Amino acid sequence: MDPLRRPLLAANWKMHFTTREAETLARKLRAAVAPLEHVDVVVAPPFTALAAVAAELVGTHVRVAAQNMHARADGAFTGEVGGPMIRDAGATWVLLGHSERRGLFHETDEDVATKLASAIEQGFVPIVCVGETLEDRRRGDALGVVHRQLGALLPVLSTTPGPLAIAYEPVWAMGTGEPVTPGDAEAMHRAIRSQLARGGAELAVRARILYAGPVTRDDALGFLDDDDVDGLLVSTPGVDVDAFVAMCALADRLTAGETSLRRVEERVEL
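Given the sequence above, the corresponding structure tokens read:
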């Protein structure tokens, strides 16, 4: 992790947990990450639990994100949720362009860019996902797909200063058994930052690039101990609060200057 960019650990709870279950997890997370001073923590609960989780985390340094939002603030869009509703529930971040939104709900690059512009205009901090499928990778088009997805975002990002994160999702590795190495992530993260630089040096420097592929508490250190990886967006470990907290602790220790992997491993129980 680059010391110029504070690490960000985000947990996507997807379509899991009732409101009561989410409140319990939020309380546990609040207590566990309270001692961590060198890492930003974000949790994205389902919409039904958004307000309850936000209420549990008031006064802490854990931020709450919505998992999606409509590009319009309000209107006749049955089943959708607009930015003012999300903010009213207590969320200040929003997750956009997740591979499941793109793949299952057919969101296009243009759809994601439109939502991004709306989110920034309404004052949300966006985490925007990009990444290639197994078919893309087998065609040798991994970089091309990610560049296309980022290209749709650059006109928005280059003219709108503010905090943001780009999450690289190697969709090809999710549920396929295909391994992702820290080297794979490093190469793609470098390519992403290089493309962001086309939107301006400031954008390339301020954007945090997260690894959002398969990761466990046992292999997280290999990804976090890299200047091109500014944090993690996790899902399966994200619903396991103990695993997620262990990853947050690793990032915190590394940022605090404990760059020796052995020292970190000695102080953080995996």
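Residues 31 and 92 are 21 Å apart (CA to CA). Try to locate this feature in the token string yourself.
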